[in-house]
Design goal:
Blueprint: E1 2-3, H1 7-15, H2 17-21, E2 28-31, H3 39-49, E3 56-59, H4 64-67, H5 87-90, H6 98-104, H7 117-126, H8 130-135, H9 139-161, H10 171-183, H11 191-197, H12 202-214, E4 218-221, E5 237-240, H13 243-250, H14 254-258, H15 261-282, E6 288-293, E7 300-307, E8 311-317, H16 329-338, E9 342-349, E10 355-358, E11 361-365
Parallel strand pairs: 1-2, 2-3, 8-9, 9-11
Antiparallel strand pairs: 4-5, 6-7, 7-8, 10-11
Helix pairs in contact: 7-15, 10-13
Length: 371
C-alpha cells in the first residue's frame, strides 16, 4: 500500500508518477490518491499498456473526483462505493451474503448469539464506521467521536463540494437540516416537511441534500412500480446511511429509541438498509434497492430489491418478535401481482426463529443478515 497523504511516500509520485508505479508489487493499493492529482493519469497510462484487471486499487475521499478534472478513469476503473461496515464484515463472517442465499433458496443461517430487541438496538447504534464500532467501548466515547465527525463533515468536507452560489451557507442551518433529515430517515415524506422543519428555503434544502448525498451520508431510494417510467415521478425514500450517525443526529440512545415507537421503526429499517446496501453494491447480479407505496397507500413495502431488471425480492421490517400472516399481506399482494418475477419475501423481526408466512414468504430474525 502507498499512502499518498504521507509526504515521504508521495514524494516520488509527485516528481514522476509514471516512474513511481514501475516495479511496485501488484496489486497496488494507492490510498488517498487525490492527494497527488497526476497519479490517476499515470494509472490510466499503465492500464492502457497492460489492461489486466485488478492491478490497481485506488481509495480516496468523497471529494476526490470533484477536485481532479478532467477524469481519465472512464473505461479503465470500476467504481465501488465504500459504505460503513456491515455486521458480517465486523464479525468476519465468511458465509454467502444474505441476498445471495435468498436468491438461491438456501437456508437463512443464524449466528450463535441471537440478540433480543434491546440487543438489536444496541448493535444498530454502534453503526458501521470502523473506529466507533470496533475501537470505542463506551457510549460517551462514541458520542464524542460522532460529534467531531458531524462537525468536520458539515464544515471542512462540505466546503470542498459546495457549489459557488452556496458558499455563504449558514453552518447552523445545515446542521438543523441534517437533523431534520435524520428524523425522517426511512420515511417517504415530502421534502417540504424536512426543509420547513429545518426552517430553510426549498432552494437551500435542495443544495444541502445534494451536498450530503455527494458525501455519501444520505441516500435516496426510488419508488418501485411495474412501470419503470412511473418510478421517476414518485416520492423517494430517504435514508441516513449509518444507524449510529442516525442515532447521534436524533439525539437518542438505546433507551430513548426503545421508548419511541416511531424512532424504533426508523432505526431498524435504516439498519436493515445499511446491512443490504454494501451487498447490493458488490453483487454481480446488479440489484437495485427500491421501496414500494401505491398511489392511494393501500400497499406499502419497506424495501423492494430488483435483480437484473426482472426478479424481485420484497422486504418488511417489524419490531415484533413474532410476525403473523397479517404482517406479510403486502408481500403476498406483490407476489400475486407479479407472479414468477417474485423470488422471495422476507419479514424481518426481532424474535429467535424463522418460519413460513406463505408461499415464498418467510419470517426471519434480523440476525439472518449476518448469520
Amino acid at each position: 500500500m502507498v499512502r499518498l497523504d504521507v509526504r515521504a511516500e508521495a514524494a516520488a509520485f509527485e516528481a514522476d508518477p509514471d516512474a513511481a508505479l514501475v516495479g511496485l508489487t501488484e496489486p497496488v493499493l494507492l490510498d488517498e490518491w487525490q492527494a497527488v492529482a497526476d497519479v490517476l493519469g499515470a494509472v490510466a497510462r499503465s492500464v492502457n499498456g497492460d489492461p489486466r484487471p485488478g492491478r490497481f486499487l485506488l481509495t480516496g475521499s468523497a471529494r476526490a473526483e470533484i477536485e481532479n478534472t478532467p477524469w481519465p478513469g472512464t473505461g479503465r476503473l470500476q467504481r465501488l462505493v465504500m459504505f460503513p461496515m456491515t455486521l458480517r464484515e465486523q464479525r468476519r463472517v465468511m458465509s454467502k451474503p444474505f441476498l445471495e442465499k435468498l436468491v438461491a433458496g438456501a437456508p437463512l443461517d443464524l449466528p450463535p448469539d441471537l440478540p433480543d430487541l434491546r440487543g438489536y438496538v444496541e448493535i444498530a447504534l454502534r453503526g458501521g464506521f470502523p473506529r466507533p464500532a470496533l475501537g470505542l467501548r463506551s457510549t460517551q466515547a462514541r458520542a464524542a467521536w460522532f460529534e467531531s465527525y458531524v462537525s468536520d463533515l458539515l464544515s471542512h468536507d462540505v466546503e470542498q463540494l459546495e457549489e459557488p452560489r452556496t458558499r455563504r451557507r449558514d453552518g447552523l442551518r445545515l446542521r438543523r437540516y441534517f437533523e431534520a433529515y435524520a428524523l425522517n430517515s426511512a420515511g417517504v415524506c415530502d421534502h417540504k416537511t424536512i426543509y420547513e422543519a429545518a426552517q430553510v428555503t426549498k432552494r437551500t434544502a435542495e443544495a444541502y441534500e445534494r451536498l450530503l448525498t455527494r458525501l455519501y451520508v444520505v441516500e435516496h431510494v426510488p419508488a418501485w412500480t411495474g412501470n419503470r417510467l412511473k418510478r421517476l415521478v414518485q416520492r423517494p425514500k430517504r435514508y441516513v446511511v449509518d444507524t449510529a450517525l442516525l442515532g447521534h443526529l436524533m439525539r437518542l440512545g438505546v433507551d430513548g429509541v426503545l421508548r419511541d415507537g416511531d424512532a424504533l421503526g426508523r432505526v431498524l429499517d435504516t439498519f436493515v438498509a445499511a446491512q443490504l446496501r454494501p451487498e447490493i453494491a458488490a453483487s454481480s447480479d446488479r440489484p437495485r434497492l427500491h421501496h414500494l407505496r401505491t398511489k392511494q397507500g393501500e400497499h406499502e413495502l419497506d424495501m423492494v430489491i430488483e435483480i437484473d431488471g426482472f426478479r424481485v425480492i420484497g422486504i418488511e421490517v417489524k419490531a415484533s418478535a413474532g410476525p403473523s400472516r397479517a404482517d406479510a399481506k403486502h408481500l403476498a399482494w406483490l407476489r400475486d401481482k407479479i407472479g414468477d418475477r417474485f423470488v422471495a419475501g422476507v419479514v424481518f423481526h426481532t424474535g429467535s426463529r424463522s418460519y413460513a408466512l406463505g408461499e415464498r414468504i418467510t419470517a426471519a430474525p434480523l440476525a439472518c443478515l449476518w448469520g
